[in-house]
UniProtKB/TrEMBL annotation, chains A, B:
Name of protein: GntR family phosphonate transport system transcriptional regulator
SMART domains, per database record: HTH_GNTR, UTRA
Gene3D superfamilies (UniProt xref): Chorismate lyase-like, Winged helix-like DNA-binding domain superfamily/Winged helix DNA-binding domain
One Gene Ontology molecular-function label: DNA-binding transcription factor activity
Residue ranges of every copy of the HTH gntR-type domain listed in the record: 19-87
Keywords tagged on the record: DNA-binding, Transcription, Transcription regulation
PANTHER family reported in the protein's UniProt record: MANNOSYL-D-GLYCERATE TRANSPORT/METABOLISM SYSTEM REPRESSOR MNGR-RELATED (PTHR44846), MANNOSYL-D-GLYCERATE TRANSPORT_METABOLISM SYSTEM REPRESSOR MNGR-RELATED (PTHR44846:SF1)
The UniProt record lists the keyword Chloroplast: no
One Pfam family named in its UniProt record: GntR
TM segment ranges: none
Annotated InterPro entries: Bact_HTH_transcr_reg, Chorismate_lyase_/UTRA_dom_sf, CP_lyase_PhnF, Tscrpt_reg_HTH_GntR, UTRA, WH-like_DNA-bd_sf, WH_DNA-bd_sf
Amino acid sequence: MPGTDDTNPASALYRGKGVTAWRLIADEIEADIAVLRLPPGEQLPTEAQLAARFGVNRHTVRRAIASLAERGLLKAAQGRGTFVENWPLSYPIGPRTRFSENVARERHQPGGELLRAEEIPATPVIAHALSIPAAAPVVAVSTRRFADGTPISCGIIHLPLPRFAGFAAAYRRNGAVTPALAACGVADYRRLETRIAARSASAEEAALLDLAPGRVVLAVTSINVDDNQVPIEFGNTAFAADRVELLVASDQAEFKP
Amino acid sequence: MPGTDDTNPASALYRGKGVTAWRLIADEIEADIAVLRLPPGEQLPTEAQLAARFGVNRHTVRRAIASLAERGLLKAAQGRGTFVENWPLSYPIGPRTRFSENVARERHQPGGELLRAEEIPATPVIAHALSIPAAAPVVAVSTRRFADGTPISCGIIHLPLPRFAGFAAAYRRNGAVTPALAACGVADYRRLETRIAARSASAEEAALLDLAPGRVVLAVTSINVDDNQVPIEFGNTAFAADRVELLVASDQAEFKP
DNA sequence: AAAAATTTGTGCGTATGTATT
DNA sequence: TAATACATACGCACAAATTTT
């Protein structure tokens, strides 16, 4: 364990195992972020100022910042400063997962955009997910979704034909899945399963989501079923991992805003 | 988006019905993978051989391979060949999430390793997650978990003291959380919430998980509670995204092997 | 447009306390 | 006890990126 210099004010608090100066500084900054005394987007004092305030060397402050940056709470930019990262949008996943509701719950303005729609024969995995014969016709709808104008996710959803022949047009009008499904006679639907993987964004995804190349996305595949347990939608969505975290709550009752 | 050259069959991707040569080839390979005619790890024929078999130019085969590689089904290695990727371990998340059960369900041998255990004062987020006062003592247990000997995840779990003073020793003996909690008098526990983010692996995570630098991890934070809804464990786990996918099933009843 | 100032990033050397051998 | 390895912390200097003058 590290050395403890009793003359150092920052190290005078606790003296347990593993309590080092840089850890104390990191905890203090973390607490400031947690209490919103350092709100998202806020610029921290410079490393030199923090070092002076805590009475330590600049390297020690840098060690604390590095620890918080690794956990995604801070982001240091050479020449500009160090900033508090935005809290990710919390996106609950459960039996009644709906994009627009999830975004609105966090007091953001949801939006959806239809990029492309085409009829294609189902590939093997699409056919399996929708429980239809291989190469049966489906409509593939490419979408991009927003919260307050910033892109959150993009992806392709597949729906069987001819039942959902009118889906694309309805989605284009509404910019949301639920009303578009309603236009096709689906009063209610349920999320059957959600698979979550992670990978680097493809070039197309990076362009659509306005991500720096190499940033990572949460790759989510989902199956929705209607009231009769018939699969109606197979989706393949990439969420910008910088802006969203997925939340699986076992208490599926309510999420207060 | 790429340019559109009508004389090039592969460039019809972004227009029309989407039934292009490379798509047909990709579907065929995908189907072979789906029915295990191309098992995980298998090497594909060379691009030249595939081009000859399908009667297309090698560029067309490359377009199909690129599409499947982007979805993680294939991996092309310059100079070596193209290989079928291993199917990721499917890791169900729900009210009764347990690592060892999840791994055993997929017919793999689970394992756990205690890397380090120390008593520390709770940071603000730990204290909030466990519903204890700030800076209250907790035990932080660093673990690494395996399936069939290959590392799957690493992370730190935090448990309040003095209730779980014996946890670390019990975990070291058993290599699993559930029996270690039982040793502390917790007969049963429930997953309260799970937050899923994604990011690049840190240097330490890359080393522990045997990942190439820059590969991505699923960063999962979880809270488990005992029968009285008292938080007993706050975990912060990084899953190697190459080797595991998280599965949220609304029908939480059963998963057949 | 160019120069200066500011801020983070990197490297080296030194010293000290902790843990292991 | 001694030797060794390691993590922490300090001090100085300079490089690289950005903003301001």
